[in-house]
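To: structure subgroup
Subject: Chain for Friday's discussion

All,

I'm putting the inputs and outputs inline so they're searchable in the archive.
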Amino acid sequence: MNEQAWWWPISRVDDVGAQPQAVQLLGERLVLWQTDAGGVSLLTDRCPHRGAKLSMGRVQGDVLQCPYHGWRFGEQGHCVSIPAQPGFVPPASSAVCRHAVQQAHGLWWAVLGASTARSVPGSASASALGSAGPLHPIPQLLGLPARRLIYGPFDVATSAPRAVENFLDTAHFAYVHEGWLGDALHPEVPPYEVSHTSDGRPVIERYRAWQPRASASAQDGAWVEYRYEVLSPFAALLTKQGEGEGSAQDSYVIWACPQSPGSCRLWFAQYTTDGRTPDHELRDFQLAIFAQDQPILESQEPKALPLSGGEAMSAADRLSAAYRRYLQSCGITFGVC
């Protein structure tokens, strides 16, 4: 599976604490946990003894204890003790598979298929991944405003590529976000050009739209300049700038974790020059916007994103078409059809 050659977001950094956290990635059940000393480990969420979920257990110092028989596992996944047999040294066959994790952009990221020996916590460098090929690096975010807020997680009953395509779509603004990001009396999508980065990621350098309320701080409607960039198969960036003097610049990133072919977990990061609006007002605005998107996303059928036809397109969908071609070029097979 080519998806094993990519890093995927699995949790906010701030959400990892004293209790083990169950996560799902590419159909695999995992457990993310932190030792008392601060080390973070990602293991397969299955005890090798009787298959119980380790995420139902508890952390004791530098070990994760299984809830069923108390088997204890260290950061590297090795079984360090079996309470029913004091003094017994568990063999290597009693270990749990550990997956590589690293921290970036306020999130923990993981890659499947990485054994204990390939773990690279805290490292942003790419490494080999066996038959899956070289490991793609986590996307970089350069030149964005310093103020950052992260919203989520949002668990959505649709595929990750469906969610990202919605983030890239502007034609729905007039209907799904009427009175906020769009106006049903002006649903037109102006002509725009799609270009590509040197590694093939789609970009719209300039998209101009009228929005009744473009941001949490907006008091009136305004023309807004958009820029879109696909960052990786399941991540994208948009930057918007109002035309009025002193208008804030806002950059939004969608980070999608593909949980199953028909479900995903999302985070939205906002980078803004708005230094006045309180955090809770910025958050409430974004929560309101996504609350409008989510039921539409979850109503779409099929939940997987069709890459080989089956859905009608118009000229307003140039970016969607480019995104689908990009997924094909990346060899993505999870959450698409």
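Points worth raising on Friday:
The first helix runs from residue 160 to 168.
The two ends are 15 Å apart (CA to CA).

D.
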